Amino acid sequence: MKVGIVGSGLIVDTLFEFIKDLKQIEIMAITATARSIDKLNKLAKEHNIEYVYTDYQQFLENDQYDTVYLGVPNHLHYRMAKQALSAGKNVIVEKPFTSNYNQAKMLEKIAKERKLIILEAISNQHNPNYHKIKELLPTIGDVKIVVLNYTQYSSRYDAFKEGVILPAFDYRKSGGALMDLNVYNVHYLVGLFGKPDEVKYYPNIEYNIDTSGILMLSYDSFKAVLIAAKDCGSPLLNCIEGNKGCIYTSSPLFTLTHFHYQLNKEEPVYYDLCDNAHRMQHEFITFAEIIDNKDYDKAYKLLKHSIDVMEVLTKARASADIVFPDDEVI
Questions:
Q1: Fewest CB within 10 A of the end CB: N or C in the chain?
Q2: d(CA 141, CA 263)
Q3: What is the DSSP track for 106-118?
Q4: What's the gap between Cα 153 and its chain centre?
Q5: Residue 198's CB: how many other CB atoms inside 10 A?
Q6: SS3 breakdown of the chain: % helix, strand, coil, rounded to 5?
Q7: Nearest residue to 101 via CA among 24, 29, 7, 199
Q8: Is the pLDDT of residue 328 over 90?
Q9: d(CA 303, CA 99)
Q10: What whole-number distance in Å separates Cα of residue 183 and Cα of residue 213?
């Protein structure tokens, strides 16, 4: 897989922490805004990237790579993914996939029409611990309660309270606790159980954005409470409780470094199957396999999951009257 990177922020820095170790992936080009040119040139020199751009359209015209990686603010995901697909590129887009469900469905339509692959970079879906949880899930009996919690006091929250609005806190850029943090919880739950029957979101709102909130999801046989916060924090515990046992972890679900499995009246069993791998490594190994092998069946299965998650997130925002300017963009 030959990749062109879009962005020069924290998530792109994180990508470079491990990508050089994956021989099946070659970084050919990078682009961002003109104000980031010094950072782009530095990254290009450090990582032997041949092509550097500050114009996205020129970047897309380069035929030396086949896949665009979008590490840009949330509100740009849809527009830039649509442009990349229209230019004949496969796309890997950071979470959240888009700003809303309709945008996700449009990207699906374009990708399938053009016989291209578009994937969401959501780490927990490719984590070995997550695959093991899926395997063990039927053995804990009928699930009754699920509680997932990702709360952390953001280093940017103090500035936000003073009126300095960065993208993760900006409703104009599809930010907020639901889209930034609870999205991991939603992916985890929907990947295990599918879409819920009912969705209701109870947010704490400041400056038109949810700085924290509780997402209530109802399934036929159980209820789920998904909590996320950027304005407060506590020790985490994520639990799936069945009538024969439970599965739980103190790890945030974007890393899922370990978990415990415990049947009733038995001692818990500890699992850590990640082998100290970088949290994003497993997903990019999978992406390279899918794209290099043109495995459309697997790609479209993952795409359907991402669209299901976007449907839940969109319903959650609608239930709480949280509106993004980007919602009207198709």
A1: C
A2: 9
A3: HHHHHHHHTT--E
A4: 20
A5: 11
A6: 40, 25, 35
A7: 199
A8: no
A9: 15
A10: 12
Dihedral Cα 40, 41, 45, 46, nearest 10 deg: -40
Could you identify the residue written with the tokens 């804990």? 140
Neighbours of 235 (CB within 10 A): 7
25, 4 contact by CB (below 8 A): no
Reading the block at residue 76, the tokens are 């740009």
Residues 6+ apart with CB under 8 A from 199: 215, 216, 217, 218, 312, 315, 316, 319
Is 0.70 surpassed by the pTM of this model?
yes
CA distance 329 to 177: 22
Confidence of residue 330 (pLDDT cuts 50, 70, 90): confident
Q: Helix 101-113 and helix 296-319: axis angle, to 10°? A: 160
329, pLDDT greater than 90: no
Cis-peptide into 196, omega within 30 deg: no
Residue 215 near residue 226 (C-beta atoms within 8 A): yes
- The SS3 of residue 70 is strand
Which residues does 114 contact at the CB level (< 8 Å), separation at least 6? 85, 86, 88
* Strands annotated E in the chain: 2-6, 26-31, 51-53, 67-70, 90-94, 118-121, 143-151, 198-206, 209-218, 223-229, 238-242, 245-249, 259-263, 269-271
240, 143 in Cβ contact below 8 A? yes
* pLDDT, tens only, 168-201: 999 999 999 999 999 999 999 999 999 999 999 9
In this structure, the dihedral spanned by the alpha carbons of residues 246, 251, 253 and 255, taken in order and rounded to 10 degrees, is: -130
Question: What are residue 143's DSSP bridge partners?
Answer: 242
Tokens for 320, please give them. Answer: 């709480």
